[in-house]
Amino acid sequence: MCGITGWIDWNTDLTTQADILEKMTETLELRGPDASGTWLSRSCALGHRRLSVMDPANGAQPMIRPAKGSDIHDCVLVYNGELYNAPELRKELEGLGYRFRTNCDTEVLLHAYVEWGPASVEKLNGIFAFAVWSTAEQCLFMARDRLGVKPLFYRREEGRLLFGSEPKAILAHPDVRPELDAEGLAELFVIGPARTPGHGVWRDFHELKPGHCLFYDKEGMRQRAYWKLQSTEHGENIAQTAETVRALLSDTVARQLVSDVPICTLLSGGLDSSALTALAVDYYKSASQDRVHTFSVDYVDNDKHFRAHDFQPNSDGPWIKRMNDYLSTVHHPVQFDTPELVEALEAAVLAKDMPGMADIDASLYLFCREIKKEATVALSGEAADEIFGGYPWFHREDALQADTFPWSLATGLRASLLSPELREKLRPQEYLADRYAEAVAEVPYLPGEDETRRRMRRMSYLNITRFMPTLLDRKDRMSMAVGLEVRVPFCDHRLVDYVFNIPWEIKTAGMREKGILRKALEGLLPDDVLYRKKSPYPKTHNPNYLSAVRGLLLDRLDDPACPLHPLVDAARIRELAAAGDASSHLPWFGQLMSGPQLFAYLLQMDFWLSRYKVNLLL
């Protein structure tokens, strides 16, 4: 994985802007700690930071190759990602006469673009965000992977387009001011820590949507979707479906275990991470490789404060040991204490360039930092719950009937946190309703579906296109902030396309959430793990965390210069804080984020506004 940035400018000679390009590129150093490269022409400037995973000795970027049929006109590529079907593409291109100088997938991608142009994206299996400049056509082409695992932001101005893997690269340009308008505030206070697809939060910032590509030349900017979820009839029975799921997942894991640097898996003892680890162990055995290394995260004294509930029925510790013993992995337990989690809230903001999932982000940042000491690549189980229907809201009638996103049910609470002036300006409940209506209007229902199937298809679509991106963004930004590449096998588009069209009664085979996935994994995992009830990414249950973030936030609100004052109702926040331990159960966002995370999010907001010197345009 890497970081990319650059800009196209029709009014400035960019060969004179090397210093600015260097500054933009260096903001992405943590994403690519191994090497740096830039390329400039009159109208195009490209920068790249490299994390070496495949063929570390070669593959420097920006990478240049002649355009098809020419020894003069160049195509120049900057690329962030991994192509899991690179061997097949390479073989096909060699058959067409291409010769390769490296063993890296960067060269495969560049030759693929030279041969097939924009249509090349439809041939790619992987996670990626890239930009190609065609000297002959004076056109920039950018594309992002189908599920949006890799980020790509841009800002278009008169006669100019700026882009970067993260907003910080664009913000490093001296002509860009760190500004936030009403719509950006609505994203942060109403939708956040999720985001509306394509929204960059910062004023005039956008994120290229998953499965989309962009063209920019002197005629202007054009975008198109090259992939989206489609509804089709499912013709297989339960046994056949389980067999197909097993085959797709096995193939995906095998492809994603290819690396020239140390690789590991994240292991919680739950269904998803245990499945990936078991498949990795099988692959390593078949390839006569060493034992798989696994990592888990927990918190000091969490066992003393854990209280079981529907969404978190038991702690991970015993299950991690169960799988570690069963698979004989080399396991690395990682543990953090409350002061570390509080301190890391700021590092998480710097990684994301905006407030995020509070301690859920901070703990992942710390976890990835520890993993990076032993490995450069990790496999993680993100997306299985969105794709297979594992979250409780897939199975609760109130969530299924709610006329809003099931992770944003507390609209009244959110509105009450805002200052009266901002509440009037943003109209939070209307803003949320509009975003929900937009999402529902996209759902590709299958003709003839009954109401139950339509409802479950809608829930699946909302989870894949609106909730899953939040977790993928979190995983990318926290891991890449420490130079760790995390791969997410459940996001293979072949698997997603297939599972999206499995009827709900088959998805819930055996009357269990993710029942078809469990059936597909029979014989791979021990039965007690296979049928363990879902438990989410672990968070701290230590009351000291609530006390710490609540106290810090109240201290900030006591400061008249606190930048939160124009935005929030301080009296209402103090009222919630005064509720004591009861505030631990505030239903703020999703099922992991309650009172402590709300206070931490507002702390992150305060730090972000100050550190980035955000100018509010209201």
Describe the structure.
With 618 residues, this protein is an alpha/beta fold. The chain folds into two domains: 224 residues, Glutamine Phosphoribosylpyrophosphate, subunit 1, domain 1 (4-Layer Sandwich); 293 residues, HUPs (Rossmann fold, 3-Layer(aba) Sandwich), CATH 3.40.50. The chain contains 24 helices and 19 strands. The two termini are 38 Å apart.
Short description:
With 618 residues, the protein is α/β, with parallel strands linked by helices. It has two domains: 2-225, Glutamine Phosphoribosylpyrophosphate, subunit 1, domain 1; 238-530, HUPs (Rossmann fold, 3-Layer(aba) Sandwich), CATH 3.40.50.620. The longest helix is centred in the last third of the chain and has 30 residues, at 451-480.
Notable traits:
single chain; 618 residues; alpha/beta; Glutamine Phosphoribosylpyrophosphate, subunit 1, domain 1; Rossmann fold; 6-stranded antiparallel β-sheet; 19 strands; 41% helix; globular
Beta content: 15-25%
pLDDT under 50 segments (min length 5)? none
The CATH architecture designation of the largest domain is: 3-Layer(aba) Sandwich
Shape: globular
Widest sheet, order of strands: 2-3-1-9-8-11
| Main beta sheet | 6 strands, antiparallel
Portion in helices: 40-55%
Task: Quote the CATH topology of the largest domain.
Answer: Rossmann fold
Q: Taking all residues together, what is the mean pLDDT?
A: 94
Work out the helix count: 24
Beta strands, count? 19
- The computed structural class is alpha/beta
Distance between the termini: 38 Å
Query: Which oligomeric state applies?
Result: single chain
Domain Glutamine amidotransferase type-2: 2-219
InterPro entries: Asn_synth_AEB (IPR006426), Asn_synthase (IPR001962), ASN_synthetase/amidase (IPR051786), AsnB_N (IPR033738), GATase_2_dom (IPR017932), Ntn_hydrolases_N (IPR029055), Rossmann-like_a/b/a_fold (IPR014729)
Pathway: Amino-acid biosynthesis; L-asparagine biosynthesis; L-asparagine from L-aspartate (L-Gln route): step 1/1
Protein name: asparagine synthase (glutamine-hydrolyzing)
